[in-house]
Every structure is written in structure tokens, then in C-alpha cells.
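Give me C-alpha cells for this 459-residue protein.
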Amino acid sequence: MHASLTPKSERLSAIQWIICGVACLGFLFDTYELLVLALIVRPALTELLIARPGTPEFNHWIGMLFYIPAVAAGIFGLLGGYLIDLLGRRRVLLWSILLYGFSAFAAAFATSATQLLVLRSATFVGVSVEFVAATAWIAELFTDRKQRESILGYTQVLSASGGVLVSAAYYLSVTYGHHLPAIWGHHEAWRYTIMSGIIPAIPLILVRPFLPESPIWKKKKAEGTLQRPSFAELFRPALRKTSLLTCLMMALCYACSYGALQHIVRIVPGLPGIRALPHIAQEQRASYYEALIEAGGMCGRFLMAFAAVHVLSRRRQLWLFQAPSLVLIPLFFLFPAVRDTGMPLGGAFVAGLLIIGQFNFWGNYLPLVFPTHLRGTGESFAANIGGRMLGTSAALVTTSIVQFMPQSSATRQLAYAAGLVVFAACAIGLIAGLWLPEPTEAAVPESRARVTSEAAAAS
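Here you go.
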């Protein structure tokens, strides 16, 4: 039935194109759902809270909205990784996309900060499970190294466009939202923006019958040779170093994003030359900076996808992005804070390129270092416990240390805090990367021959 999944031919079949399309859509809206909060958190809390921006209560809720959903994603995302290994890649992938699509739609009707927090947590859970399911699914469907690396790498490039798309959606909502139907009697741009997260659920319902299960997982399941996933196995000698190190390094990667990049939209309105503008103009300028960051991220992901195919050393791939990050990104935050000057637009692009580009690395790397029966569980531990739970806590760290920064304005204090957090994360990541295990082709547990024979038998 699915003989077209065999890697004998380099040309993609219709089914394979659908698979790539679903992966692109999922990766794109993963980023869309995660980054929408950076754009809407200030206007949303301004409407839902009595507290004013800049007050301790307001900052507390910002930290809660960034961190609590990440904790939920870490806990339930780890369970989702276990279910990916137990129930199959495709089934969990589809349900995870539906979960984050419909919870995002419901969040547009939140009437309190608590409701928004609960619905954002559900969205985060769906996103965290989708990433793990999609990368494991693709890695097992395309077993030829060059084809697998290309498809994993280049489908993730689309995730960076999610940031550009959400910036555009917010800009359009700010500018033209008054023409849309009112929600609770008002035309708030943040509600229309977050509502748009339901988009990926619509085509997914249509293509669901055409999507195949992973042939590797399905064959092992049918033969009764698929071992039951176990969290404890991640910490046994064979996998302990890989599990702990990938968890740490994904946490640091997320820390750079959540502890620094996602605060830029809050820093921009207070920059010289912008703070005197009308509120709508400030929000439009903030969305412009966010779009530049995501455009840089798209270029960074593309470069990392290229490196995944042409640079065999995994450590070297990552080092090409880590080394310049350690110097350039802290300067992007700290220099304007010290001089009380505007953030350079080119700096926003470079920051996105260097930090967001690293996320592509993990999508290619993680499926290769865990065996079939632990692929979802291992990936989920690194991505959800490390990245989404521990790494995103950097947002809370940044908002907590703001009060200890040199006092002159709230904007400069926030820029100082973000600069220090990103410097620490980049420095630790550069050092930890020296011990990153180098996977080999043998690390992929199933050979091309086995997949080919399975596909032929299925047909």
C-alpha cells in the first residue's frame, strides 16, 4: 500500500509530499503558537488585569504565562513522548495538532488571566508533543541519510516562517481588527491573533486518511519485537550521558529564546524614538522587530539544514552557530541598554539567525541518538523537560532579576537582564557542546533493507 515510502528513489511520491506538507504545517504553527504570546501578552494582560504594565503584579503574570504552560508541556509532553512510542507516531501527531489548534481558538474568548493561562497550557502541551512525534515520524519514514537530513532540515525551516506569519497576523489585527466581528463587545487585536492558531487543524482533518504510520514502528509492533518504552532506561549507562546532555543543551537553547529574544517586543516600545509614538505605532514597530528576528531565524534554519547534509560533524554544525552567539547577541542587548539608544535592526536579524537556527539542529540530531522503542520518550525528555520546562524558565529568571539591574528606566533594566541571561546560556552551551555524542549511521536502528522489504510487503 505504501511502497512509495521506500528510499530507493530520490524523487518524492504524492504521499511523501503530503507527509512533508503535514510536517511543514505542524512545524510552522508550533512556532506560531509559541511566539504569539510574546506579541499579545502585554495588551492581553492590560485588558484582563487591573495592574498596569511595569508593576510587580503585571511582571509576575508575564512570568507565569511564559513559564507555567512550559511546565505543563514538560510534564504532559513527556507523557506524550511515551505514548508516541506506545501507540504510534502518526496517531499522536494528529491529536497533538488538533489539541493546540482548538485550545488556541478557545483562548481568544478568555475573560481572565487564569483562563488564558489554562488554555495556553493546553496549547503548549499540543505543541510539545507534535514536535517530537513529527521528527520521529519523518526520521523513520525516510531512512536514507541524505534524504532524511534534507527533509528533517528543510521542513523545519518553515517553522521560522511561523514567527513571520504571527507577526504579520498581529500587525493586520492591530491595523484592521476593528473591521472584524467583536469578541465580548470589543475589537482587541490580541484576541484575533491568538484565535488564528486553529488554522492547521482544518487541512489536517482532510488529509488524515492518507497519512501512513512509521514502517519501522509498525513492523516491530506487528512482529511483537517492539520493546515497551521506559523512562528508567534513559538513565542507564548506555543512554545516560546522551539523555542528560541533550536535556541540558536544549534547555540552554530555549533559555536564549525565552530569556532574551521574546522580551524584545517589550523592550522596543521604550526605546528612544519609539516611546513617544502613539500606542498603535509602538505595537506596529514591535511586530516589525519580531518579524526581523523570525526572518533571521528562517535563514538560520536554512543554513543549519544545509550544514546537516554537508557537514558530517554534529559538533561542528552546532559550533558554527554557538561561537558567534556568545559575542554578538549579548552585545545586541547590552550596548543599547548602556547607551540608551535604539536596538539595531540588523542585530535583530542576526540574533534570530544564530539562536533560532540552532533549533533545527535538534530536530535532526535527536532521532538519531535514541533507539526505536525509546525515540519518542528520549526526544520528549530532551525537548520537553529540558527545553520547554527548564529552558523556558529563563523568561521567569529575566523578569525576576530586572529589579536588580541598574536603574534608569524599566526598558533599560529589561535589556540588561535579557543580555545577562543570554550571555550565561550561550557560554554554558558552548562548553557543554564539547561533550556532545557524535551519532553514526549505525545509530539509526533499522537498515534500509528492512524498511524496503516492509514497504514491499505492505503493498
